[in-house]
Amino acid sequence: MTGYGKAVIELPHKKLTIEIKSLNSKQFDLFARIPMIYREKEIGLRNDLSKKLERGKIDLSFTVEHISKDVSAKIDHTLLTQYHQEIKTLAKQMYLEEPKDWFQTLLRMPDVMKQDVEELNEEEWTLIEKTIEKAVNELVDFRVQEGEMLKKLLTEKITNIRQLLQDIAPYESERIEKIKSRIYDGLNTLENKEYDTNRFEQEMIYYIEKLDVNEEKSRLTNHLDYFIETLNDKKSQGKKLGFIVQELGREINTLGSKSNHYEMQRIVVQMKDELEQIKEQILNVL
Known about the structure:
Oligomer: single chain
Number of strands: 6
Strand order of the largest sheet: 1-2-4-3
């Protein structure tokens, strides 16, 4: 979701630089620094950007550099005279000295200096819109490049989890035999032991079934396939991928709790490590 774009336009009396940045966010969040003259266009601009960029913390800034040196500033003579008279009267009433630098003091008073208000020109705004679009397109291109790298990384991590899942297979039958041997050895150490062989076999089957991980493996494989399928979708699927990652985590955790075997648990830890890296990167997906 991160990206950056910049575009510049030169108008008759000013040069306008437009910069737009994007950071990760679960929703669209725009912070715009726009000159007062263009404020009336902000709502429409916000709607357009939300459609094009969808999600992210967006920072949009306008930098204006005036080319013309003519500044239409005026001094309000009437207001300046009134301030002058009021200050003299107050100073006399309060037994205070009058300001030594009258001119500087009066010029700092509110509304003494006035500047003609610049009006929005629709033709000018049309040119600015095209410049904004150029900056946004740069940001989108940046996102696309980052997305391709991210897609490659996520695919690699999913492939690693799939391979680790296959690595579990050799230890499944081995751990069942070890469990059986451990239980039989435990029974043989008991003195005066008497037990129902059939009941013992039933309990053994029940215990082994509780440790069976075939369902978890099957669901995990399906989630891995679904993740890749969603990742290859041309539409923005960041939130959906986040939900799939949650399901992957549940199956991996269950697999770990049912492993009851050192090598299997070690492989599950590796799976969790790969999954954590996916979780970190999934925040960058729209």
